[in-house]
Amino acid sequence: MVLTFVLSMTLAACGGGSTQTSGGEGQTQEKPKFMSILTGGTGGTYFPLGGAFANIVSDATGIDTNAETTGASAENMQSIKDDKGEIAFTQTDIASYATEGKLMFEGNAIDNIKAIGTLYPETIQIVTTEKTGIKTVEDLKGKKISIGAPGSGTAANAEQILEVYGMSLDDIQKQDLSFDESVNGIKDGNIDAAFVTAGHPTAAVEELSATDKVVIVPVDADKADKLIEKYPYYTKEEIGSGTYKISAAVPTVAVQAMLVVKAGLSDEVVYDITKAIFENLDKVQHAKAKQINPENALNGVGIDVHPGAQKYFDEKGIKAAN
After folding, report:
1. Residue 13 and residue 2: Cα distance in Å, rounded?
2. Which of 62, 130, 171, 242 is at a distance of 20 to 30 A from 101, taking alpha carbons?
3. What's the pLDDT tens digit per position in 131-140?
C-alpha cells in the first residue's frame, strides 16, 4: 500500500495522464477541450471563413472548435477580455485601439489579446442603390445611413471617412444595423445607404445586387491620402468593375482583417492553430481564402504576435515587410 501511494504521488507530480502543455509565463497550461472562434454577422465575410477555420482547427488539434456569430471586431475584443472566446476575427485598426485603450476602448484597454496574423484587405464599401440618387460622400448628409452593428469596427471607419470630408455622425441620421439589416433596410427604403467594412464581394451586398442596381460611393483619392496620413492603418483599395454588377471600378480604402487569440493560450496550442489554418487554406471554399498568404501575415499587424504564432512564422522564415 505504501509503495502504491508513493507511485501515485510520483505520477501526479510528473503530470502523468494530464492534458497539460508547456507555455510561457501567465499562459493557460492545460490544453482546452473546446474553443470558440468569434466572427461577425452571417452576411459578412468573418462568419463563413470562421466556420471553415473551426473545422480545420478541430481536425488538426483535436480541440472541439466552433464559429460563433457576433457583432464583429470591437465586440470580439471585449469578448476575449471577458473570456467568452479564444480566437477572434477583427480589423487591425480595432485591435490597435483595443490594446492602446483608445476611442471605443478608452478607459477599457484589452490586455489579453495577441495576434496570430493578418488575413486580407477589408474594404470600406459605402453601399446604396441608384434610386436614392446618392453618388458622393457629401450626398450622405441628412440621409439615413447605417454605420454597422454596435460593437463592429465599421462605425469607426464611417466616422473617420466622414471626418476627412468635413462631416461628422451628426450630419447623418445614424442607424446601427448589421450588414443583413442594412441590406434589408436599403431594399425596403427604410435607410438610404450603409457603410460595410468587409472583404469584397460581400454576401449581403451581392444579395442586394440581385434585386437592385447597386451603387458604391467612391472615396476620392485626395481624401484617401488625407485619411491615410492621419490613420496609417488604411490603404487605398478598388472595387473592380463587375463586382455587384457595377459598370466601372470604384476607388475606396481598406483596413486589414486579422486573427487574434487569447494571450493565455499556450505556445503549443497557438502554434498548432496557426499552422493548421495557414497550411490548409485549400480546404476553405470562400473566395477570400485566395487572398490569404502566410508570407504577408505579419504585415500591418499592429499588436504583439503570440509567441506560438511567431514560432510558426520563424520556422517558415517569414518576417514583416519593412
Report:
1. 17
2. 171
3. 999 999 999 9
